[in-house]
Amino acid sequence: MPSADMPIDTLSDVLKAVRLQSALYFFVDASAPWAEEAPEACLVASRVHEGASDVIEYHVVMSGECHGGLVGGEPIHLETGDIIVFPQGDRHWMASDPHLRPALDPDLFARLRSQEVAIPEVSVGGTGTKTLLLCGFMACDATPHNPLLRALPRVLVVRAKASKNPTLAHFSEMALRESRQGDAGSSCVLARLSELMFIEAIREYVQSLGSERPGWLGGLRDQWVGSALSHLHQRPAFPWTIETLAKEVGMSRSVLADRFSELVGVPPMQYLTDWRMQLTATMLRNSSEGLARIAESVGYGSEAALSRAFKRSVGQSPAAYRAASHRRALA
Q: How open is the CA angle 82-86-88, to the nearest 5 degrees?
């Protein structure tokens, strides 16, 4: 049986697997009327970060107000301090007026990359009311089975007025100060701040959820399912069965199986398999570990067993997946 160690922080464990990389961030100095649109992440990922296939996009309203939302979706009014996040990197827009129709700017990322400054800035719009946005585009490892990104809504908004946590406002103030001072190391500081703002936004969102909310995040907040998730993440290589997991949690196997499936959306052992495949994919992309060592670390007795499971889950062999990941990184 696994040891009775302190439960692992499952959210932190999954955030590590997301492997956030602050690939591109910039300020938009906008004067009404203005409207901008961002394309789907898959279309800009390679321009945001070499080898990236997934991108999380977010915008912080540093001052002023504006509107934003998914293309084709309802407009969302945003005020100073608010953060809007697009976890799946959906095509979206930001504008001074929700009725303005933005147009894609295909050269935006190239222009940002060409600026010989630590923190690029874009000026848009006319001569009216000013709004300052901090925009972040972060490369991440979302595939094949990252439970956090799959559980997040397509649009996530954190309201400054509703938040009881001053941390986000503090991070925003630091980001603005770093950008204006331009001291040595400002680019590195802003990169870390952009990651921290995203993580803090996720924490705020998780705290707003009830334990009965369906989905992985609801399961995380549930006393029993959260404990089960913690055990699976703490010992992914352990030969878990529903019986051993139920004994650790302190529930009957049938009750745990039903409650886990109801909240998380898949049975416990399917979740474990998916998480093992996520860990395998991360190691294939980001390390030179041999398949035998990877198989041992994620709970498979042989390379052949892991290869079969990985191909069944991901659609290609571990070797093919690693080769494709390396080709993207060199493209």
A: 160
* pTM, full prediction: 0.80
CB atoms within 10 A of CB 331: 8
Asked if residue 2 has pLDDT above 60, the reply is no
Q: How far apart are CA 60 and CA 172, in angstroms?
A: 8
Residue 254, classified by CB atoms within 10 Å of its CB into exposed (0-12), middle (13-18) or buried (19+), is: exposed
- Rounded Cα distance between 60 and 40, Å, is 19
Residues in the chain: 331
3-state secondary structure of 117: coil
- Side chain identity, residue 142: A
Edge-first strand order for the sheet with 92-95 is: 35-38, 92-95, 65-70, 76-79
With b for 16 or more beta-carbon neighbours within 10 A and e for fewer, the 227-253 pattern comes to bbbbbbbbbbebebebeebbebbebeb
pLDDT of residue 106: 64
Residue 21 phi/psi, 5-degree rounding, is -135, 115
What is the distance between the alpha carbons of residues 267 and 39, in angstroms, rounded to a whole number? 35
91: its two tokens:
């095509």
Whole-number Å distance between alpha carbons of 255 and 49: 45
